[in-house]
Amino acid sequence: MATVNPATGETVKTFAPFSAEEVAERLSAAVDAYHEHRTTSFTHRKKLLLTAARLLEEEQEDVARTITLEMGKTLAASRAETAKCVKAMRWYAEHAEGLLADEHPAEADVADSGAVSVLVRYRPLGPVLAVMPWNFPLWQVVRFAAPALMAGNVGLLKHASNVPQTALYIEELFRRAGFPEGCFQTLLIGSSEVDAVLRDERIAAATLTGSEPAGRAVASTAGDTVKKTVLELGGSDPYLVLPSADLERAARVGVTARVQSNGQSCIAAKRFIVHAEVYEPFVRDFVARMSALTVGDPTDEGTDVGPLSSEQGRRSLEELVDDARAHGAAVLCGGGRPRGLTDGWYYEPTVLAGVTPDMRIHHEEAFGPVATLYPVADLDEAIRTANDTPFGLSSNVWTEDAEERRRCVRDLEAGGVYFNGMTASHPGFPFGGVKRSGYGRELAGHGIREFCNATTVWQGESATP
């Protein structure tokens, strides 16, 4: 467990992993906290979560600098991530009670069942294990923690090993806000220890955001132990540009959609599928904008793209680009390490054309600032190309044509379709994918109910007059 500055490669601080005894103590504390927390009122939980939001807002700059130090995104991006977490906490504090309000079936169905009354009540499940990634080290956790805590659950966080300071801060934040001891705890453990924790009978369910292999491992264990899971895995999101699009906006937003979090985002637009009629002007503008990005120190306010999070991450990205180049792809810009940045794990914003199915990058997720281009003849080919991936997290479509929008909503295999804009999660909308991008939903009412027991409460006629 270590903070290693991606901009320099320097190991800043190390942390000793928890012993088996420490993990067991925290699991017991989670159970004790759950029995207390589950009986509290929504009004009480709301007060605590709003306090956490206020504390985080007050500490935004320090938290943002920690995020940047640990995983390398620009300070501007880290500040925006922190602000988004504050927004989500406040959203769930205000909406949770309504989202989990008792539901009353139709009177005809109640009467047909022979009941005097029937209601559906949402009750918490218990301690939930959250296995979270480093690319949005605060947001990924908060978008689980805020609804889970408001529902009456408690959380145990196994965060990525390269963001330990952020992980420990989150635990301390909820404690300082007044949540009971053990209500939200960080486990400093390695990936190899997740299986044993998930198998522990004190864990009721799990949520994971991360790689497909990690998702398979958690899903397998959860299936073996019959525990509920929500998985948000990789993505290779398409970005369709059709003839009626505003090309200038599509190119400008497309750059942001590709390089957000230094290109290390599951919902980043990765495959740019462009109609032949507008391919050349779009590509010309898009490549010019990608080439103009400033790569450098993420703490410099003028930097657009910081380093990748790890040396291995850069090596994996280089292998994908080198493989594409070897199989005939054209590198329109970038394609290597920036000159003059000898320390840290930087990679140039890159655009590849001529990508074919025999290239690894056609099928694998490029986790870095690398975009691939696909010219298509018509909407049918655009949709086929967009769906030609094992992933299905989200999608972006630029068009002013109502029929094209209808077709895309009907036919794109993804958890979201965003028209004339880039994919971005919001606390009010469900978020998640299909195919190998996972299952279940986070955020909105869908997310808070994922880890609830929808309990049918049926009342028959009393025997007493």
UniProtKB/TrEMBL annotation:
Molecular function GO labels: aldehyde dehydrogenase [NAD(P)+] activity; succinate-semialdehyde dehydrogenase (NAD+) activity
Family annotation (SUPFAM superfamilies): ALDH-like
InterPro entries: Ald_DH/histidinol_DH, Ald_DH_C, Ald_DH_CS_CYS, Ald_DH_N, Aldehyde_DH_dom, ALDH_GabD1-like, GABD/Sad-like
Residue ranges of every copy of the Aldehyde dehydrogenase domain listed in the record: 2-457
Keywords: NADP, Oxidoreductase
A UniProt-annotated Pfam family: Aldedh
NADP is among the record's keywords: yes
Keyword Oxidoreductase tagged: yes
PANTHER family on file: SUCCINATE SEMIALDEHYDE DEHYDROGENASE [NAD(P)+] SAD
Name of the protein in its database record: NADP-dependent succinic semialdehyde dehydrogenase
Native source organism of the sequence: Streptomyces armeniacus
Lineage of producing organism: Bacteria, Bacillati, Actinomycetota, Actinomycetes, Kitasatosporales
